[in-house]
Amino acid sequence: MVIHQTRASTRLAAKARAATSSVTVTPSPKKKPKVQHNDNNVLVASSSSSSPPKIERRTLFQHDDDTKVREKVQNLIQSSIRICSSSSSSGSSIKTETMGGWCLVDGLTHCMTASDGILQEMIETHGPPDFLKNYLQTGKTSTRGKHEDGYQSFRSLCRTVASQQLAGPAANKIWARFLGVVGASPSDTTNLTPQSILSIIDNGDVEDDLREPAGLSNAKCNCIIALSEAFNDGELSDSILSSAPDEEVYQKLQQVKGIGPWTVDMFLLFECHRQNILPIGDLAVRNGTSILWKVNGKGKGGAVCPKKNKDEIELCHEPFAPYRSISTYYMYKLVDKRETKKDVKGSKT
Fold first, then answer.
1. Burial of 156 (0-12, 13-18, 19+ CB in 10 A)
2. In the chain, N or C terminus with fewer CB closer than 10 Å?
3. Which of 68, 70, 97 lies closest to 10, judged by CA?
4. Between residues 179 and 23, which one has the greater pLDDT?
5. Is the pLDDT assigned to residue 50 strictly greater than 80?
6. Which of 76-85, 118-127, 329-338 has the lowest mean pLDDT?
7. Pairing, β 93-95 against β 2-4
8. Is there a contact between 110 and 17 (Cβ–Cβ < 8 Å)?
9. CB neighbours (10 Å) of residue 299?
C-alpha cells in the first residue's frame, strides 16, 4: 500500500519544524499573552507574553528523527485504513490530502512530537482521527448525499444544529427523525435540501409537519428554517463557505439566527477539515485539556471556563499549530476514555 505525498509537502513540513524549533519564548507575568504568526504560519508567543500555565511535562521524552516519525505515521495510516476497508490490498494506494487541502501525514507527524510528545501515545493508540480516516476511505464526510448538488454544507450545518447539547445516541436518534421528515436517511441524505424544508413550510404546518415529528426544539427548528432560506436565496452555498477563510465563515454563518461560534467550529472542523480549529466553547475540549495538562478551572465549582481559562487553553494547544484540529480531536478521545472507565467502574459496584 502506498501513501501519496508530494515533495513540496515534505519540504514544507521540514521548514515548519525548523522554524518552530528556533523559536524561543520569553514570558512576562505582568501582561496578557500576545500571539503572533511567524512566516510559516506557526503560532509563537511574543516576548511580552504572560507566564504559561503550570503544565505537567514528561521530562525524559525522546523521539526518533523526523524521517522515522513520518514513516511511523504512514504505517499508522496504512494499517488503520487496511483494517477498516476489506477491499484494501497491499497494492492499493492512499491519498492523504484532507478536504481542507492539508496533508494528514504532515499534521500527525507534527503533533506526534509537539509539546514534548504528549499526544504520541494517544495517536498511536487511537490511530488517525476517525472523521479524516473515513474521508480518506470514501471521499465523503458523514452528512454528504450521493450527489454533489451544492448543499453538502447545508446538510452538515443542519446536523450540527439538530445535535446541539445532545449526547451521541440521542443526537443520532434526533438526526434520523429529522431526516425521515424529508424522506432522507443517515445512509442517504440527498433529499435533505433547503427546498424540501421550505416546501413543508409553504404547504403544511411548521409545528405538526416539521418541528414535532423531527423532535426539534423551537430554537433549533427556527434556525434550520433560517438556514434553508439563506441557502435557497444564495446568501450561503458550498462554494462560498468552502473558499472563504475561517474568519469570513464565522462572520457569514453567525448572521443566521441561532448559529453561534460552537456551531461554526464544528462545521469547520468536521465538514471542511480546516486544520487549525480549537473550539474552546466545547466542554469536551476544555475537559480534555484540563485532564492532560492539569489546568485548574477558574469557573464555578472549579470548572474550566471558556472565558477565564481561555489564555491557558490556547497556550496548551499552541505547540500544535497550525494543526490544532488534530489536538482538538484527541481531547474528545481523552474524555471518551475517561467516561468509559467511569462506566466500567460503576458497573462493577
1. buried
2. C
3. 70
4. 179
5. no
6. 76-85
7. parallel
8. yes
9. 13
Nearest-angstrom CA–CA distance, 61 and 115: 10
Cα–Cα dist 287/12, whole Å: 33
Contact 289, 304 (CB under 8 A): yes
Residue 292 · residue 331 · CB < 8 Å: yes
- Sign of torsion, CA 268 271 274 280? positive
Summarised one tens digit per residue, pLDDT across range 122-158 is 999 999 999 999 899 888 877 765 667 889 999 999 9
| Amino acid residing at 61 | F
249 within 8 A of 268, measured Cβ to Cβ: yes
Backbone angles phi, psi at 11, to 5 degrees: -65, -40
Cα(152)–Cα(231) distance, integer angstroms: 11
What does the pLDDT average to over 96-120? 96
d(CA 192, CA 180): 9
CB of 281 closer than 8 Å to CB of 41: no
Query: CB–CB of 102/4 below 8 Å?
Result: no
In terms of DSSP H, where are the helices of the chain? 7-21, 66-84, 104-117, 120-126, 130-138, 152-163, 168-181, 194-203, 206, 212-214, 218-232, 238-243, 246-253, 261-266, 283-293, 310-317, 324-348
Amino acid at 245: P
Is the pLDDT at 229 greater than 60? The verdict is yes
Residue 110 CB-density burial (10 A; 0-12 exposed, 13-18 middle, 19+ buried): buried
Closest CA to 115 of 309, 283, 324, 335: 324
Is the preceding peptide bond at 322 cis, omega within 30 degrees of 0? Answer: yes
Average pLDDT for 170-186: 95
Residues whose CB is less than 8 angstroms from the CB of residue 29 and which lie 6 or more positions away in sequence, other chains included = 50, 51
Q: How far apart are CA 77 and CA 198, in angstroms?
A: 42
